[in-house]
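Forum: Protein Structure Q&A
Topic: Joint prediction for protein chains with partners

I've read a bunch of threads here and the consensus seems to be that you should model interacting components together rather than docking separate models afterwards. I'd like to see that in practice. Below is the full input, 734 residues plus whatever partners are listed. Could one of the regulars post the assembled result?
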Amino acid sequence: MDFSSNIASQLNAGTILPEGIVIITLMVILIGDLITGRNSARWLPYVAIAGLLIAVLDLCLLWDLPEPDGFLGSFSSDNLSIVFRGIIALSTAVTIPMSIRYVQQSGTSLAEFIGIMLTATLGGMFLSGANELVTIFISLEMLSISSYLMTGYMKRDPRSNEAALKYLLIGASSSAIFLYGISLLYGLSGGKTNLMAIAANITDVSGTQSLGLAISLVFVIAGIAFKISAVPFHQWTPDVYEGSPTPVVAFLSVGSKAAGFALAIRLLVTAFAPLTEQWHFIFTALAILSMVLGNVVALAQTSMKRMLAYSSIAQAGFVIIGLIAGTDTGYSSMIFYLLVYLFMNLGAFTCVILFSLRTGTDQISEYAGLYHKDPLLTLGLSICLLSLGGIPPLAGFFGKIYLFWAGWQAGIYGLVLLGLVTSVISIYYYIRVVKMMVVKEPSEMSDAVENYPEIRWNLPGMRPLQVGLVVSVVITSLAGILSNPLFTLANDSVTTTPILQSAVVTQQLPQETITVSTQSLESDLDTSH
Amino acid sequence: MNLAEGVQIVSFGILAVMMLAAALGVVLLSNIVHSAFLLAGVFLSISGLYILLNGDFVAAAQILIYVGAVNVLILFAIMLVNKQENFSEIPGSKFRKIATAVVCIGLFVLLGTMILVTPWALDSTSPAVIENTIIALGEHFFSDYLLPFELASVLLLMAMVGAIILARRDLIPEIADTTDTVSTRLTLPERPRELTSIGNVEEIN
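Posted by a regular:
Agreed with the consensus. Here's the joint model:
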């Protein structure tokens, strides 16, 4: 009795209220589908979207909590985690409308699909706030296992089976490596699992513990880099993206990636704060490889989904620049870019889904002359792709400028210059698709466009697709010009988060300690004379 | 050294040798059924090590879950896919095996050095202080590890739903004959790519 009442008073369970709302939505969907059967597809997706939006609303109410730590320090609801949880919940709320028609067309059941996707969202949301190793691992597995399930959802398609198996095998081994890394952290800190306690207990950084810490750092980064698909841990990305149902790809490229970045910030900045120089070095290598390989290989792709896969690898490389910058502006530029990336990438995927539903293909050459048949789709896809490439008035341009500016201020000139060069390369392959759709004469139309069906938005499941398309295109085109609220949000979330503030301070510390030690050396010399 | 310590050291030696030999067998034997049975040996030796560490509940759970469930599942999977197949020798497999061995031994040396070099902060709590390990575990589950403990239930629920989806027999839907959109039978709407390069190679041959 004493024990339970004692614990209950300290839990501060209100910190996970948004996740609670998502869990309730998940239950409503699973049980509602059981009760009402196949007819449930008419209302279930909207319940899911409503639940996610309520969760986002609740996240807004949790802003600036006086006591952000919940569950005895397992979960931290500081403003950084709120922003990331918001990004993940929003990405699912945008992904669900585009999956309704897609899943129903393939004859698979919608309710379970949405249920698994909500579980993946929950995993990502918990991962963004997890402040303790066991919670981190469980939520990471929740995200991964639901992703494997969704990847293999098209059971009779060999490509989907192959993608699921590849993703499962590579994902399981990367989880195992990650687990080994965090178990080393547990051992080095003398049996602590809370990140703060680990940071406080690992004291002997340059001495005998340095080898263990370095190995643990490398293993942990291998796990994180798999989630954000940074080169050289990207091998699964193209195959999985090609073989998965497209809405799943959309979720993997935004929600799952945002969760990976949230984990990277929290784990590296707190537990690996003494090794800042080393992880900056490793991530610099990852960023260089991702930007170069992602952008160059994307040039050669003929399938739209594969091209977007390589483009998402490259975008991860750009976002890492903000992480390496390690300053307030660096972190807030990451958050701003991820917010913008959410809408432009999901917008592009909505267009790809719409096209493949109408024509049954995703080859880039089949898009030729689409402008003459479907102007709305052409406009939406063009805006989203140009924004991904970073063409000025669109949101992606401002996101990239902010990232590069933050990197330049932090003094990582080489990386920023490389980012500029590779984003010029990326513009080439985005423009190629736009040119294919817009410039071709009616006589040069591809077969798929030639036989393009009449556009009917009143088919079941098409209306949400249209709404999702219009919303993401409008936000992509306006978020750049009216970006002030987003900037403020990203900045506030970073400047009011205690872990990042202390990290910025500790990064400045070493220079002071050096001066102190030289002074003490001088005084030693003085005394010896 | 008293009798208890001597027994501990001897049993540790036996368990370690058993575990290493079984683990090497799992990797090196070519018959997959033998590997699966040896895997059970590895799990049993690990649970013996847990008992030496005073983790009685963990040892029991290890046997129940890993030997009783996971390993039996592996054996079932092997029996269901009872297919004899002689794989043709991959060219350069000898080189690959040597490369794998070098990488593995290198990793082992690195990790071994790290374990020996690092001064581990050992927990000084005497095992006599914790009377009942189950109560200690339960207190942790319902206090500082409450969140992951509850999260695991959501994870298990969804894993169950997912397993049922993957394993159940679906009615293959009739393709609705519409020209508006593409319908498929549990497959992706995108057509597979035509693998032109392979066709060309065959033509050349």
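The longest helix of chain B spans residues 3-28.
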